[in-house]
């Protein structure tokens, strides 16, 4: 069975500052590891990623405080999958006909919407976003080197902090369900899907339930691992790399009547997710030949969000393209 590797990023230094600038040669080892992970399973854990655990704890605490508010309070800052704010249970449905059992708060950096009045909420989202963006840049450099491209090849199209893109953070809260809660057929915490952009980072608590589907269609658990982040490839990056890298389907179980023994049945779960995408005006042209038509990043994103809200889908990027 394919394994999900843990990759150490210490070569860049730990504080998110730019004082360590490794040479291409310094990055060789980590580039080989990334290449193997993204060609085989499309995901990995990253440790020594430079994002302070105190900062993540602060964001977790303020997000939990927000989700514990009465629904009518949360609805005062309502948003949706493409604009900042609260997304209640029942809206997102992945591939399932039944809605996911999750509620979210979405943060987009170009936000003008009002913030909830919770201590550190706004500041933490902004600071975490900046830190994740530094990490995104570092990983994109390594990915380019791993494909024998110039180091800035992907990074230069991810300005993120000063150009429009779909990049955002989602705090996802999966509430504890009542003991007698019976899910309807196919309903899970987050239904099988692939992400739309370049790279996704997931910081999760220790409740469990996140799973990734391998190329041979086996589900494997992505358990929480000592502060390591989960990194998943998005389908736009699969397209950009002419299918060299693989965007893996993933999902979050579990509801109380699932019987596979994976932990978390009667506990709520919180995850903080960074969805990294290229700048909206990027022309994404496959690195090898003409397998795919070039596409503007914002058009890809619009197509994918439209499809997700209309009917969802499951499976790989190729399967999606067949039914589009
Ligand atoms: O909550 C998680 O761990 C993952 C959720 C997810 O895959 C998503 O929101 O796209
Ligand atoms: Fe996802």
From TrEMBL:
Example GO molecular function: metal ion binding
Entry's family note: Belongs to the iron/ascorbate-dependent oxidoreductase family.
Protein name: Uncharacterized protein
The entry's keywords: Iron, Metal-binding, Oxidoreductase
Stretch forming the signal peptide: none
Family annotation (InterPro entries): DIOX_N, IPNS-like_FE2OG_OXY, IPNS-like_sf, Iron_ascorbate_oxido_reductase, Oxoglu/Fe-dep_dioxygenase_dom
């Amino acid at each position: 069975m394919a394994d999900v590797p843990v990759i150490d990023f210490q070569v860049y230094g730990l504080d998110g500052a730019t004082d360590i600038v490794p040479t291409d040669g310094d990055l060789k080892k980590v580039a080989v590891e990334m290449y193997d992970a993204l060609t085989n399973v499309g995901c990995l854990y990253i440790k020594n990623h430079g994002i302070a655990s105190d900062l993540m704890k602060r964001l977790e605490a303020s997000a939990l405080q927000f989700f514990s508010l009465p629904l009518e309070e949360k609805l005062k800052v309502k948003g949706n999958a493409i604009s900042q704010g609260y997304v209640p249970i029942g809206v997102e449905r992945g591939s399932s006909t039944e809605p996911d059992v999750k509620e979210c708060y979405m943060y987009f950096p170009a936000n003008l919407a009002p913030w909830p009045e919770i201590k550190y909420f706004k500041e933490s989202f902004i600071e975490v976003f900046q830190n994740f963006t530094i990490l995104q840049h570092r990983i994109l450099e390594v990915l380019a080197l791993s494909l024998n491209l110039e180091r800035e090849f992907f990074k230069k199209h991810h300005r993120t902090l000063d150009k429009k893109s779909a990049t955002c953070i989602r705090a996802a809260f999966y509430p504890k369900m009542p003991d007698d809660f019976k899910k309807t057929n196919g309903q899970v915490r987050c239904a099988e899907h692939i992400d739309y952009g370049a790279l996704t980072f997931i910081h999760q608590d220790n409740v469990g339930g996140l799973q990734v589907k391998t190329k041979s269609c086996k589900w494997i658990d992505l358990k929480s691992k000592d502060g390591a982040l989960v990194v998943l490839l998005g389908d736009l990056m699969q397209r950009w790399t002419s299918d060299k890298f693989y965007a893996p389907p993933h999902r979050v179980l579990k509801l109380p009547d699932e019987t596979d023994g994976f932990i978390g049945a009667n506990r709520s779960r919180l995850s903080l997710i960074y969805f990294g995408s290229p700048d909206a005006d990027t022309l994404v042209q496959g690195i090898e030949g003409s397998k795919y038509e070039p596409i503007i990043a914002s058009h890809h994103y619009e197509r994918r969000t439209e499809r997700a809200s209309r009917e969802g889908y499951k499976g790989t990027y190729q399967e999606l393209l067949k039914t589009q």
